[in-house]
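Final paragraph of the annual report: two paired records, presented back to back.
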Amino acid sequence: MKRIRITLVMLVTSLLTMTSAVAEDNNLADILATQSDENRARYQYRNPEETLNFFGIEPGMTVVEALPGSVWYTGILLPYLGANGKLIGADYTVDTWTGIGYDSADFVASRKTWISDWTSKNKARREDNWASVDAFVFGALPKSLHGTADAVLFFRALHNMNYSAPSAAHLKDAVRNSWDVLKSGGIVGIVQHHAQDNMSDAWSNGQNGYLKRDHVVEMMEAAGFELAAESDINANDKDRPTESESVWRLPPSYNGAQDNPARMAAVKAIGESNRMTLKFVKP
């Protein structure tokens, strides 16, 4: 009996050690600490740890990220979601890209192969304990992905879809796809450049980067989502543009300031944009 007890203790200890190792591999603070100096310098504005925690993102989830890349949230989510998780990239349609001015033949061709290109690239760099990957284009969500995701994340990705087609048709397609891809109880997390209420609707249509909170909420609620929470994690009261300015005057773009030291100093003092942070739930 004593030998059995020892064996059981060893088994439990081994399982706890394995669990601890997995938890350590998926420790968000540790993953954030390994990002590049350039990326970590922007944490003061993007607040990735607080933002992901606010949205309730955890290891093992299946998460859709709009406009994924290689670094930033893609580079954070792949290791954080872990071997039991999945990251699904979602790109704009070719019509959205051309509608916002990316219409060169080479660029259009690159979007047509984006799904295979993005998945292949991330599969090649994927480590053993990283999330698996998949991808789709908004407006063409495969049936096989319906009801599979725990969360959809839009990081500063709504504005281009809002103005690139009449009546925000491209954004409505993306919101509908978000509903379809999510499980019941799934969440949509939005971080978006936030237009002040006193700005005109014409200026705040997304073409300058900014959208009004009420417009975003109304569109999401019209699709059936419920606003569960909102936060000022990514707010910046210093960002108060005039209607002759856009979000790209600010870091990291600095449009119009490269050859103007006084303007560069002024926009650096503002920092990155004022952003709303909204959490919606699919009932």
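The closing record of the year follows.
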Amino acid sequence: MLRWLSGAMVGVLSLIAAGSSAVGQDLRESINKGTVGIISGGIGGTYIRIATDLASVLDNGEDLRVLPIMGKGSVQNIDDILYLKGIDIGIVQSDVFAFVKKSNRHPTIDSRIQYITKLYNEEFHLLVGEGIKSIEDLAGKKVNFGVEGSGTYMTASIVFEKLNVDAQPVSFDQGLAVEKIKSGEIAGLVYVAGKPAQLFKDIQAANGIRLMSVPLTDAILDTYLPSRFSNDDYPQLVAEGEQIKTLAVGAVMAVYNWPQGHPRRQKTINFIDKFFSRFAEFQSPPRHRKWQEVSLTAVVPGWNRYQPAERWLKENIMTVSDAKGTKAAFDVFLASQAPALSKQLSDEASKEELFKLFMRWQAEQEQ
């Protein structure tokens, strides 16, 4: 009798285990079916805020879950999109694509990584310490370029080379770099991020520490857009009425080009449909204000648009409002013009002509 009971018990336990395994497998498939992994940036940057906004708006508990993941910079993000398990989409700087192709790091990248949309412009922050009066004063001095291989490191290297300033690059965590500026161990730091960046939230212009203007030479403007910082961006670092000139580089939502019929491709198509359809929700508080600069139809030179995104835009073009993005772009346009031209804004009769010039300029940026 005991043997029979023991055998029956084993049978029951086996059935329970089999059922539990089946339930676990179903749950695993359900959780993974609609999950899209997005590699972004560090905790103090704008990328992770953008990825978090995507999750907050688009997660619906049914067929789409957005999983924001902290990354280590644009170059590493390209590697992660290509090879890291669970990553479908990444946020990178637009100039990283040309850098990767030039270095022959990934020879077939044109067909493997494409873009969903251009996001916004990221500003080049140059924070300096006591005794630095111009960017030329950084020659021969230690300047934090961020983690080697990151987008900031790459852009900092390009900009300092174009300006013929031979600084001594060092690589520290940006938070630590701020402390090293305060102690005088390094002369400055570069940080490429969408303004206002969390890193600078609690930094005050004191003891010579300040944001420094970057000369917008022809060599710089061949590659980058003009931008600026104001008191609205950094109240503790920029005085009221002050304008600090700088440059900007585009941020891009990149995606792995999954082949036709692949289940991961269907997940990205689902993400694009939800993201584009609900885009207006990203341009209102409490979402990051950089969303107001985004135009879904903007073209990224040197990149190929992901075919599902291209198809959605063709089928639904002009249904997405990006008026706020147009206004933000108009502000960038004004910063790129001579002061005498900008002053014409006070003349109502000139506004129409200025706006026509702006529209022409904007079209050129999107070619």
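The CA atoms of residues 280 and 320 lie 7 Å apart. This concludes the annual technical report; the extension proposal builds directly on these records.
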